[in-house]
């Protein structure tokens, strides 16, 4: 579940794009609808609008497995910088993003990096120090190549990976037992302050900051059984780390930039099993988002938002132990009966990072198939005799 990330300034993970010409042709090709097809479509639409009164409009829920399909709209960036994009594109060409908390290829941090890259942004990441070697080795050996494929057929390129542990603001904060821990051996400059200094030296500035990390050492414990140290550790790693990252990065963020974090509905609703102070940490993160939006907006013209994402079968989430139950619950009770994909959260982040959302700041944006709007779980036996719409 930990996502504190970073990678040493000495470690480079440069992966050159590999563009498939056949995929480019598919992406750039336009769909032409003939007048004849349009008329046929309107005829079918007109005929389907007549609803028989003999059939009930609402069908009763019957027990059984929920069927769902994934519907994903991908962000796409043209490879030719000189060619204007049609419509209302998410265009992040010329922007640089730092994503804190990328340690594998199946979490929300990775998905956000891909969507930002698809929109044209340059990607640099921070990886939790103990996970750094495995992450960089997987990149070099091509283990992530399949998941690096962008909509235009090219591969996402990560310009640089920094070692990072966002629990510590500066070298003086690091306790001796961590300094001498073998999992940190061989890495340097991984506190928040040092990482920002390295990024400034290497790149000068960034435009987008993404906080995709959290940790609660006692997350499996009910709040009443959580120790003070466990509670404060969850707050430190999951919420204050965002404050620290933003405070240190703001001086090198370009005006008009954007910062995004990830939260969870447990901040405002009871989610049994999500303990150890993690629900409190997410509530603090959302409150901080509003305050930081005001301060960063007034002082640096930087927007601050957070995405409340639904459950995902990531490695980090599996550590909690009940992620499959939460996904099944969402499928049964959310307004949209489909499994949430990481790409959908990534695309929302790309929108929030783009000029298209230039007036949005201090917001909690829900990307959870609408589950946050529900007041009850409609799969309860209590509602067995109630006619409730169901996706077939």
How would you characterize this protein structure?
Pfam families: adh_short_C2. Belongs to the short-chain dehydrogenases/reductases (SDR) family. FabI subfamily. InterPro entries: Enoyl-ACP_Rdtase_NADH, NAD(P)-bd_dom_sf, SDR_fam. This is Enoyl-[acyl-carrier-protein] reductase [NADH], chloroplastic. 34% of the residues lie in helices and 12% in strands. It is built from eleven helices and seven strands. The protein has a seven-stranded parallel β-sheet with strand order 3-2-1-4-5-6-7, sandwiched between helices. The longest helix is centred in the last third of the chain and has 23 residues, at 278-300. The two termini are 34 Å apart.
Q: Ends: how far apart?
A: 34 Å
H and E order: HHEHEHEHHEHEHEHHHE
What would you report as the Rg, rounded to the nearest angstrom? 23 Å
| Shape annotation | globular
Query: How many β-strand runs?
Result: 7
**Structural class of the secondary elements?**
alpha/beta
Largest sheet: 7 strands, parallel
Going across the biggest sheet, name each strand in turn.
Answer: 3-2-1-4-5-6-7
Can you tell me the residue ranges where pLDDT is under 50 for at least 5 consecutive residues? Answer: 1-64
């Amino acid at each position: 579940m930990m996502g504190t990330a970073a990678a040493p300034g000495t470690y480079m993970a440069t992966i050159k794009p590999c563009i498939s010409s056949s995929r480019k042709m598919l992406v750039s090709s336009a769909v032409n609808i003939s007048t004849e097809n349009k008329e046929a479509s309107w005829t079918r639409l007109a005929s389907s609008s007549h609803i028989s009164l003999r059939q009930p409009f609402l069908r009763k829920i019957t027990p059984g497995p929920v069927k769902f399909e994934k519907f994903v709209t991908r962000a796409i960036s043209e490879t030719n910088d000189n060619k204007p994009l049609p419509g209302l594109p998410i265009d992040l060409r010329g922007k640089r993003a730092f994503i804190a908390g990328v340690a594998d290829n199946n979490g929300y941090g990775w998905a956000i990096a891909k969507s930002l890259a698809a929109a044209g942004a340059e990607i640099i990441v921070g990886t939790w120090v103990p996970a750094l070697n495995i992450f960089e080795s997987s990149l070099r050996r091509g283990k992530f190549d399949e998941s690096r494929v962008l909509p235009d057929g090219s591969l996402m390129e990560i310009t640089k990976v920094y070692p990072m542990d966002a629990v510590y603001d500066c070298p003086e904060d690091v306790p001796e037992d961590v300094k001498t821990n073998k999992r940190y051996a061989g890495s340097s400059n991984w506190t928040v302050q040092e990482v920002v200094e390295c990024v400034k030296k290497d790149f000068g500035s960034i435009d987008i900051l993404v906080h995709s990390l959290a940790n609660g050492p006692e997350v499996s414990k009910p709040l009443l059984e959580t120790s003070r140290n466990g509670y404060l550790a969850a707050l430190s790693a999951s919420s204050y780390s965002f404050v620290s990252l933003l405070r240190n990065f703001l001086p090198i963020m370009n005006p008009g930039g954007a910062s995004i974090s990830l939260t969870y509905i447990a901040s405002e609703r009871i989610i049994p099993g999500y303990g150890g102070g993690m629900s409190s940490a997410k509530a603090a993160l959302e409150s901080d988002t509003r305050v930081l939006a005001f301060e960063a907006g007034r002082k640096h013209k930087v927007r601050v938002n957070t995405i409340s994402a639904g459950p995902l079968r990531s490695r980090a989430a599996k550590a909690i132990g009940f992620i499959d139950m939460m996904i099944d619950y969402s499928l049964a009770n959310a307004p949209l009966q489909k499994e949430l994909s990481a790409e959908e959260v990534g695309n929302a982040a790309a929108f929030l990072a783009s000029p298209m959302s230039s007036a949005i700041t201090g917001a909690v944006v829900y990307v959870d198939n609408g589950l946050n709007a529900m007041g009850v779980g409609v799969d309860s036996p209590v509602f067995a005799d109630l006619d409730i719409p169901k996706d077939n």
